[in-house]
Design a protein that fits this description.
The complex is a heterodimer of chains A (about 230) and B (about 325). Helix content of chain A is about 40%, strand content about 15%. Chain A contains ten helices and eight strands. In chain A, the strands form two sheets. In chain A, strands 4-5-6-1-7-8 form a six-stranded mixed sheet, with helices on both faces. In chain A, a hairpin with a 2-residue loop joins β2 and β3 (about 45). Chain B is mostly helical and about 325 residues long. Chain B has one domain: ABC transporter involved in vitamin B12 uptake, BtuC. Chain B starts with a helix and ends in a 13-residue tail after the last helix. Residues about 320-330 of chain B have low confidence and may be disordered. The chains are: A alpha/beta (about 230), B mainly alpha (about 325).
């Protein structure tokens, strides 16, 4: 994958066709996969190859494309795991976990086993857990996947609210309505490289982007007025 | 702490037993059952809470037994110091084994096999090495007295092993309520998710292994003092590895009282079987196997899990209508 760097705006969606390397990029940034070359820099420091737990302590948190709740635990206990990163005592961590549980809309489900949640609930739980670690940067990997339109509509404000807390969000998304409404600046990844970036409307009309999704020559066939 | 009340109650009841029971046979049975329970409590920290199933906890049991026995017999070290040294040796061995296995990323069946092999290697070494008395084993000289941790009365041994079990119960309780505990459970449930949430998975596993090894080593040290004889089959044999993992699984993995309950139940069944059918060799293993199958079939979370399920069922039947599945629609 070609090395690149960019300053992050508050919410930066990362879009691109399947196989572009988006999740791979996340896994490299969050320390789950080793990069074959290049470096990852954060706040002026080289963090390449640091293990995930140390990155989490630095304030880089991630969610997983396929949700991974702690099945045997309750919703509250799930969030507690994240909360304990920066809160040593059980009572302090519980307070944080409860607060965040309410913030993401899981207030009534805190006592329930995590495996009784619906897909939408599990996505919120995934969000809550990562949020509980007090991150400065949050990598959301297709957090909206598998949600129906009304569920997407309900969860988007939760994500936007994270920005207001001062968290920088980098999100891989395919759900374009959310990308359009959330972001000022979008990055497009294809075949391991950033091929375009800019305001959503502009990026979506870019022939290079269209071709990445639909194949060579598609832009010419469709005309460059693709989009709204 | 209010949470320690059940533990205190259980210990109080058990402590009172020798005041009413005077039969040496019964007390002996209980002492052995509690010793097995202690070994199981140790296993439970790593296996029950941490989800790393060791098949070779004999390695720690035997090391505890041999270290305390050898120090007394060969170097004239005081029994109490030997006991402490045995526990420390177990802990160090746990650290070594943990460092070797966890850093290599060994999990699940691979971890189980490596621990099994480790115990077996120790058994073979102990059966030929001069320091452990090779095939003859190590015999601690009978010399009654509190200074030598040897007592005429079974009740004294009973209270000692009960105290050790008590420490293990309190340890499990404290772990459950601590940050380390929730991290350990997270490692059991999903290592990758735990890592992403800042849990140092290898560090947590290693710490759990050291605690687990120390507690099981204490059981081994006690064995040496109670029976005054250790050989390689006793110290590092699969019998104790099996008991150490069986009793928590049957009683309830990842619970405070699971191993204790499991040990009492399993040992009682073993004794009952012997009384009914005579001393057929291997009969107790058949019983253990059957009980294990039954427990996993009906109450996968062990006897304590079964009790919790039953209690929930009773509460539902007598309380207001349970929330239906449809209520979890929005989430």
């Amino acid at each position: 994958m070609k090395h690149h760097s960019q300053p992050l705006k508050d919410i930066s969606p990362l879009i691109g066709p399947n196989g572009a390397g988006k999740t791979t990029l996340f896994s490299i940034i969050s320390g789950f996969i080793k990069a074959s070359g290049g470096a990852v820099r954060y706040a002026g420091e080289d963090i390449t190859g640091e293990p995930p737990h140390r990155l989490a302590r630095r304030g880089i948190a991630r969610t997983f494309q396929i949700v991974q709740p702690f099945v045997g635990l309750s919703v509250r206990e799930n969030i507690l795991v994240g909360a304990h990163l920066h809160h040593r005592t059980r009572s302090a961590a519980l307070a944080v976990a409860d607060q965040i549980g309410h913030d993401v809309g899981l207030g009534e489900f805190l006592n329930r086993p995590a495996d009784t949640l619906t897909v939408a609930g599990r996505k919120r739980l995934e969000l809550a857990r990562a949020l509980a670690t007090g991150p400065k940067v949050l990598l959301l990997d297709e957090v909206l996947a598998g949600l129906n339109p009304s569920e997407v509509r309900d969860i988007v404000p939760v994500i936007r609210d994270l920005c207001r807390r001062g968290i920088t969000i980098l999100m891989i998304e395919h759900v374009m309505q959310a990308v359009m409404s959330l972001a000022e600046h979008v990055f497009v990844l294809a075949e391991g490289r950033i091929i375009a970036q800019g305001p959503p409307a502009q990026v979506v009309a870019d022939p290079v982007v269209v071709e990445a999704y639909l194949g060579h020559g598609a832009a010419a066939k469709l005309g460059t007025s693709y989009g709204r | 702490m209010k949470a320690l009340i059940p533990t205190a109650a259980v210990l109080a009841v058990l402590a009172a037993v020798p005041l009413v029971v005077h039969s040496n046979v019964t007390l002996n049975f209980l002492v052995v059952a509690l010793m097995i329970a202690l070994a199981g409590q140790g296993w439970n920290i790593l296996g029950g809470y941490g989800g790393q199933y060791s098949f070779g906890h004999a390695a720690f049991f035997g090391t505890g037994a041999y270290v305390t026995a050898s120090l007394q017999v060969r170097y004239g070290i005081n029994a109490w110091i030997g006991f402490a040294a045995g526990i420390a040796a177990g802990a160090v061995l746990g650290a070594v084994l943990g460092a070797l296995t966890f850093r290599s990323g060994l999990r699940g069946s691979y971890f189980a096999l490596v621990t099994l092999a480790f115990a077996e290697v120790l058994r073979i070494i102990a059966s030929v090495a001069p320091i452990t008395g090779a095939g003859v084993g190590t015999l601690i000289k009978l010399d009654l007295g509190i200074r030598n941790l040897q007592f005429q009365s079974r009740a004294a041994f009973y209270w000692i092993i009960l105290a050790l079990v008590g420490v293990s119960l309190v340890t499990a309780q404290l772990i459950e309520r601590s940050r380390f505990g929730i991290w350990l459970i997270a490692v059991r449930e999903n290592e990758d998710a735990a890592k992403a949430l800042g849990v140092n998975v290898n560090g947590v596993k290693l710490a759990a292994m050291v605690m687990s090894a120390a507690i099981t080593a204490a059981a081994g040290c006690f064995y040496a003092q109670y029976f005054l004889f250790v050989d390689s089959g006793i110290a590092y044999g699969t019998w104790i590895s099996i008991q150490a993992l069986l009793t928590p699984i049957i009683g309830g993995v990842g619970t405070v009282f699971g191993p204790l309950l499991g040990a009492l139940v399993v040992k009682s069944l073993g004794e009952a079987a012997k009384l009914l059918t005579g001393d057929a060799p291997g009969l107790d293993l058949i019983i253990y196997g059957a009980v294990l199958v039954l427990v996993i079939w009906f109450t996968p979370r062990g006897l304590i899990g079964g009790l919790t399920q039953a209690r929930k069922l009773l509460m539902r039947r007598s309380g207001p209508a349970a929330p239906s599945a449809g209520e979890a629609r929005h989430g």
